[in-house]
Amino acid sequence: MTASVLIVDDQVLVRSGLRQLVGASPAFEVVAEAGDGAEAVAQTRAHRPDVVLMDVRMPRVDGVAATAQLMRFAAPPKVLVLTGFDVDDRVLDALEAGACGFLFKDLTPWQLETAMRTVLAGGRVIAPAVLDSLVRRATGPARSGAVPDGLGRLSGSERRVLALIGSGLTNAQIARRLHLSQASVKTYVSRALAKLGLDNRTQAAILAYEAGLAGTECGWDRDAV
To answer: What pTM does this model have?
Structure first.
């Protein structure tokens, strides 16, 4: 079954490029475009897309405000926030508003398709480079070697999974990296969040970065989303 996609960006050339990327996969179809957040809400109401590719910085209503409005729909779409900035201080705001992930706009067709499939399956997508720049801005230089409360209670497997979350990997990618089933990875993630008193993967990723864990577990897949 083909999944429907709404592209939201104030630049016509960017929308055209994203349309071509989406069109590279037979599993996805662009059903509408929007030039700002207000139009994105209207087009979502009209077309009910499965996925929204949302720019952050737009005139009138930006991507953060639009994402928050879309989350009020009875069946909200999966929102992937895209940024063209090396560091964008609005992206974490968008995630808190309900976005499923954030990526740079210089995506390959495979990366974009993988990201959309991941969020449709209920996952989150955090590009490692985006996570790195955002956390540096939010927390300052990584405090390598710092041991947050609760980290010492993690098992070896839970700690390895936490490190890979900090590197931006999805559960499926972690499972492949550690030769585990996705069910096992999901269990380790849940246990780690509970022991650390965290609510979600984003908080876990930031904690892993601050503790100097991110990127330490067998490196990360630099071609992965």
So the answer is: 0.64
